Amino acid sequence: MSNDNAAPTQQEQLAGSIIGTDISFLLARANAVSLGKASAHLRAHDLRIRSYSVLALACDETRPSQKEIAEFLRLDPSQVVSLIDDLQRRGFVERVPDPRDRRSNVLVATKAGQAAHAKARVDVLRAEDELLAGLDAADRDALGRILRRLAFSAD
Amino acid sequence: MSNDNAAPTQQEQLAGSIIGTDISFLLARANAVSLGKASAHLRAHDLRIRSYSVLALACDETRPSQKEIAEFLRLDPSQVVSLIDDLQRRGFVERVPDPRDRRSNVLVATKAGQAAHAKARVDVLRAEDELLAGLDAADRDALGRILRRLAFSAD
DNA sequence: TATTGTTATACTCTATAACTATA
DNA sequence: TATAGTTATAGAGTATAACAATA
Questions:
Q1: What 8-state DSSP symbol labels residue B65?
Q2: Chain B contacts of A22, Cβ < 8 Å?
Q3: D21 C1' to A102 CA distance, Å
Q4: Nearest protein residue to the C1' atom of C12, measured from CA
Q5: What DSSP string runs through B26-42?
Q6: Least reliable range by pLDDT among A14-23, A37-46, B119-128
Q7: Mean pLDDT for chain A?
């Protein structure tokens, strides 16, 4: 990219190596770049990627249960417990017993939680824009469409 | 996907939620699916994704140093140390001092390491085929091209 | 019996700093 | 002084099993 007619750097050579061309590897590395940017932007809000994600789902009008959150984020239910514990301590979310199934808790964001989410979201979108900076609109659309299929395909 | 004219499931509704449409989230979830498949296939070879990746780079003719491996895989150099320790104990790789810079070790795969890699690679590619099963050739190409740009963009 | 949320535990991964030997 | 590799350690993430309440 940077030095077109110079000798390729070691990193550029490795990018052409047997593993550097695997979609699985590229997916992992692109995700690492993405996580790095998002984490950096979320630090100012005292949120991690997981807690931000749970908070965002708590703000959704579909009112997901802990089980559904765990499934959607591909986390173990026990991990969701401690993520919610933290958000609840900070006054961002509340566990509301589901009247239709008293085993279930439905997660809802408080006013403070909604405000915190709205502010954090600005920076999350900024991080995403940084990540996608080199892509035109068509590539962004294609990427979203293709990733959606992979992300929600059967395991 | 499965129930076209039925009411959407909670998971399908969440997929349309504020976070479910973020490229960053889709990237993370697609990667999680990918890692799950690859891990499952590598288990039979007694390799993890990281150790497989290091082994694959050790098989590459560019002869990367530990530093270069760390950078390429976005791992801390200290993590690479223990990954190599394990592979070396198993007789798959060797640390060869770089004559041009005696601080550096160059990693090379042994015959046994090359054989182990070749066998594991078959299953890794199988996992990747599972992951990409729903995509046609054009989408696979587009995905590879776009991910490569993200994966090797500046942090 | 099966499921939701919870607790507990052990293991892996990640981040950081300090040390050594070379440059 | 700076860098490659190493060691050590603490914190975050992950996987598992067992339990209480409810279905």
A1: B
A2: 124, 128
A3: 9
A4: B48
A5: HHHHHHHHHHHHHHHHH
A6: A14-23
A7: 92
